[in-house]
Design a protein that fits this description.
With 500 residues, this protein is of the alpha/beta class. 29% of the residues lie in helices and 30% in strands. A hairpin with a 2-residue loop joins β21 and β22 (409-410). It is globular, with a radius of gyration of 23 Å. The two termini are 39 Å apart.
């Protein structure tokens, strides 16, 4: 039996279900499949940033996600004797959401799956395992093993969001770039019985005897991660008595109850190619990173947001297929910058040699002593996106656009999915764009924030893509044709392709 969809998504983890929700809202006929029979019930990812929450907002689930999350405003790297080596402080963010939020991943996934059930154009299938796929001029035919036997499904496009051991990536034959980080850690998740006895900030203990992570989580949980020493084996550190010894210095006996224990190897990997004709990789299938920057899930959700609007635009013939070449061009450098930050953090933490750790401590403590007082920021800063789907060289191109809030109302909810042209100029028409003049009643109390944003950049107008990134800023008569050209003649070059 063969069924037809616009997009087939393999993998119903966070990346896959968010992509399905965004596509479903755009009316794209979407199949999202997973080889498991339901949501993995235990925590994995622990953190999402404000930009990720904004994507959840676009998918209609931000309030449900944040209701089970816990914002955290401080992240400290400490010496073995608890002196501060590095401190990250956050308060606000461009999106209006808290910059750093600790989550319970199964709760997040459940919220998105609940949303999928309200979308008629999305079909979620569990216990469907991808066997193989074949591509042709019409798209893709994917073959699955299902509870009812083998099924073949046709689609215009297929997205492999099927995790670190991605079957789609294996079938594609692409190489993976190893960024040379491979460290074994014991991860312990606990249910909190007495929160007053636990830290309320996130900590990295840079102790050469035992590098340790201690972080808040959502839904009444707390996590510890302990680096394995070279002479230790997984079966040894997973013993409950050994775990009790590790937790004893934290004085949390009776304050927590063990929920999960597992040994992971923290990797840093990037697939060299993310597009193969009508087939794409996203999330952990395309990249993996150590958890020290808390960006693993965030990166996958960003992939979904970037790919969703482009697929929808191509499928509705608002854009040419070449626009999809900009996906890897934009996302891969961004992911690499995040991985480099996570590697810097990880290499700061994962020093087992006492002499080397002492040198590190002296250097970082001296830097802190010479630096100004700790500054409060808006979360981790990453470089802007670039490529042919931006009007590069104009103010703020490739940056996340602001989302003002007023009286509990959020701009994105009022404005819709976009793209938007926000302007102080007279604009006669702009096909395919939602035009908002600052004098329009529809803009209302949000106008002041937009006016300030434009004035600071010396621009009269800003064009914002559906993924909330700034396409470009300047004058409307330049932005509108440039946007139309980007959709129709992107001429992107596929990173890792034979011609690149």
């Amino acid at each position: 039996m063969s069924h037809s969809f616009d997009v087939i998504i393999v993998g119903a983890g966070p990346t896959g279900v968010v992509l399905a929700a965004l596509l479903g809202q755009a009316g794209v006929r979407t199949l999202v499949s997973d080889r498991a029979d339901g949501i993995y019930p235990l925590p994995r990812a622990a953190h999402i940033d404000h930009e990720t929450v904004r994507v959840f907002q676009q998918a209609g689930v931000a309030d449900a996600v944040m209701g089970a999350s816990r914002p955290v405003a401080q992240y400290d790297f400490l010496t073995a004797d608890r002196q501060v080596l590095m401190r990250f402080l956050t308060r606000g963010s461009p999106s209006g959401w808290p910059a750093a939020n600790m989550i319970h991943q199964p709760t997040v996934e459940a919220a998105v799956r609940d949303r999928l059930r309200t979308l008629d154009s999305v079909d979620l299938r569990s216990s469907w395992e991808l066997l193989d796929y074949a591509t042709g001029e019409a798209g893709v035919v994917a073959r699955f093993q299902t509870p009812d036997g083998e099924r073949s499904v046709r689609g215009r496009y297929l997205v492999g969001a099927d995790g670190a051991s991605s079957r789609v990536r294996q079938l594609s034959g692409t190489d993976v770039e190893d960024l040379e980080f491979d460290e074994p850690w014991l991860v312990i998740d606990t249910l909190v019985l007495d929160p007053a006895r636990l830290p309320d900030i996130n900590l990295q203990i840079c102790d050469p005897d035992r590098p340790t992570t201690c972080v808040v989580m959502g839904s009444g949980r707390h996590r510890w991660e302990f680096m394995l020493r070279p002479d230790e084996r997984p079966e040894q550190v997973l013993d409950d008595a050994f775990i009790a010894t590790l937790l004893k210095p934290w004085n949390v006996e009776g304050a927590v109850r063990l929920e999960r224990k597992a040994v992971y190897r923290f990797h840093a990997l990037i697939a060299r190619q993310w597009r193969f004709g009508p087939v794409f990789l996203a999330g952990d299938a395309a990249h993996q990173m150590p958890p020290f920057a808390g960006q693993g899930m965030c990166a996958g959700v960003r992939d979904a947001a970037n790919l969703a609007w482009k697929l929808a635009a191509v499928l509705t013939e608002e854009a040419d297929d070449d626009l999809l070449d900009s996906y890897q061009v934009e996302r891969q450098p961004h992911v690499r910058s995040i991985i480099e930050l996570a590697l810097m953090m990880g290499r700061t933490v994962c020093i087992l040699d006492a002499a080397a750790a002492a040198q590190r401590d002296v250097a970082l403590l001296a830097q802190r002593a010479a630096a100004p007082p700790d500054a409060v920021g808006e979360g981790l800063a990453f470089p802007p996106l670039g490529g042919p789907a931006f009007l590069c060289g104009t103010p703020a191109a490739g940056e996340v656009f602001i989302q003002p809030w007023s009286s509990g109302r959020r701009w994105d909810d009022q404005a819709g999915d976009g793209p938007w042209l926000i302007t102080t100029e007279a604009v006669d028409s702009a096909p395919g764009l939602c035009v908002f003049h600052l004098a329009d009643p529809a803009v209302g109390e949000f106008a002041a924030a937009f006016r300030t944003w434009l004035e600071r950049r010396g621009a009269a107008s800003v064009l914002v893509r559906p993924d909330r990134y700034v396409f470009g800023a300047g004058h409307a008569d330049e932005l509108i044709p440039a946007w139309e050209k980007a959709l129709r003649s992107t001429q992107g070059q596929r990173v890792g392709s034979p011609d690149s």
